[in-house]
Every structure is written in C-alpha cells, then in structure tokens.
Amino acid sequence: MASRKAPGEYIQVPPNAAAHVDAYFEYRHIVGDDDGGQMFTPEEYEAYKKRVLPMRLHNRLYVSWINPDGMDCILVGPQHKCLCRHRFTEHKTDFQQIPKDRPILLPCRAAGCRCASFDYAANSSGTSDPNCRCKHALQNHSTNPPYKCQKGCTCSGFSTPFTCGCGTAANKHFTLVETKEERERRGHPTVPYGIPYKAMGGMTGFSSLAEGYLRLDESGRGRPSDEFLNQPITALDHPILRAHAALDPDSMTQRLSRSIKAPKSPYDPNAQLTTGSRKTGTSSQRHIKK
Ligand SMILES: [Zn+2]
Ligand SMILES: [Zn+2]
Ligand SMILES: [Zn+2]
Ligand SMILES: [Zn+2]
Ligand SMILES: [Zn+2]
After folding, report:
1. Which of 100, 166, 228, 278 has the maximum number of C-beta atoms within 10 A of its C-beta?
2. What strand order describes the sheet that includes 61-66?
3. pLDDT in tens, 181-222
4. Residue 136 C-alpha to ligand 4 middle, in angstroms?
5. What distance in Å separates the CA atoms of residue 228 and residue 235, rounded to the nearest whole number?
C-alpha cells in the first residue's frame, strides 16, 4: 500500500516554473484579450508585438477622470469600467497615428457595442455598479451619451449621486484623453519611457492606483510643504521613523519623550487640531448631567 503523501508532494513543479509564470503574465499584460481567448502561437505573438509595440511606445494616450479643478481623481487602468459596461481594455487604445481632432475618441470594440468613446463609470467595480439618481441600474441605461434611462422614467442621462473623494459630485467630473505633451503642458506627470502593456491609460506607477486626493504628485493633491516634511519626529510617528530619529545624532535636539503632540496638517495651516472639539465635548457632557 502506498504511503500517504503530504499535500506539498502532489504538485510537481519544474525548476523553471517561475519563469513560465512570469512569461504568462507578461503575455497577458501585453495582449490583454486581443487573442480572443485563444493564446497566440509564438509566431503570432511576435507578429502582434511587432505591430502594437511601436504604437504603445510612441503614441501613448493618457486617460484620466478629472474634476473641475483638473485633479486626476482616477487614473484609468485596463480594468476600469465604461458607462457602456465594458472595461477600458476592451476599447481602442492603440493608435497608428494620434488623431488630430479633440476630444480624442476611444470607441468600444466589444461585439455589438456602439459606445463611441470610453467614459469612466464612477464608483463601479467588477461585480457591482452604482445606481443612477433615477434609481435604475446602469444596465437600464443606453450605452451612448447622454446614457438615457430606458425604463420610461424622466431620467435625462446616467448620473450617480456619489461624491468623489475630492469632495466634488461625480457628475461634475469628466474623462480626459490626452497626449504626453498635452498632459505635460497641464503640469501632470508622465512616464519618460514607453510601456509595452495594453491599455495603460493614465497609469504611471504604483501610486496611480490611489485616488487623486491621496496621490502626492501633481496628478493629485501635490507634494506636502518642506515645513511638513521636515517637522520633528514625535512619539506619534511610525516606529521606523522614531527608531531612525533615536539613532541619528542630529536628532538629539528632538527630545522625543517631551513631544507627544499632534503632527501638523500638511494641507491646512490653520487647521485647529482637537482642542476646539474637546471643549465643546465637555460642555455638552455637563449639559446632559443637568
Ligand atoms: Zn462597450
Ligand atoms: Zn465604452
Ligand atoms: Zn437614470
Ligand atoms: Zn430610470
Ligand atoms: Zn474627484
């Protein structure tokens, strides 16, 4: 009788498996679903790359969802959803030549969809979509602007009641498609090198995944002031920072034990930290005791 195997023994992994997995992920990032679900042969893959990579390296378009002040609240990536219900990667994103007309249109390529250009569906995810102000689902609206409701209500176009993290209503935002030069003229970051992956949209790095108001570059809220960055390390800071301060002879002046105080807000120099609310708290407690 064969002895029982430990769970780890069931899967035989060849020594170069990791390289195969990496190659597969690279293939997926480059091809997306352009292979129609049937993996390209090595020859087809080479031909595909020969055709699309020059377009991606030279004619990249940046796609973001911006508020009226020009903050890139969302940097659109391959999986972001359009009001036509298809993902960004299902839209046309590779261009032989950058169109001359503005706005630049990124039509949907999903079978049967007549969406004329990618339009970010705020607050939607892979599994759920927000409802419209008219209470009907995104599914019940047309797939072309102004995305009217088809349930016979008075809705004049899809609009979600959601307020963006920037504090502005979602329906005051719009999807912007721009070239590298146009984006730089707006003072927003681009990447200096070409990226071979499909449908990168507005992605420029890891922080691209954060919402605009959290992103500390010019696409979001911007870099905090030097005063904020150089303030003394206090007991409220991250342990790594505190450990560093303890080792750094220059920081002997920053007597840590003394300084349990709230860090300054990087954005609002006039912010009143806690003291005001504490006072009102006490007075209301007294009030209740009466
Ligand atoms: Zn579509
Ligand atoms: Zn679309
Ligand atoms: Zn509606
Ligand atoms: Zn409706
Ligand atoms: Zn916003």
Report:
1. 166
2. 72-75, 61-66, 174-179
3. 999 999 999 998 889 999 999 998 888 888 888 888 888 888
4. 5
5. 16
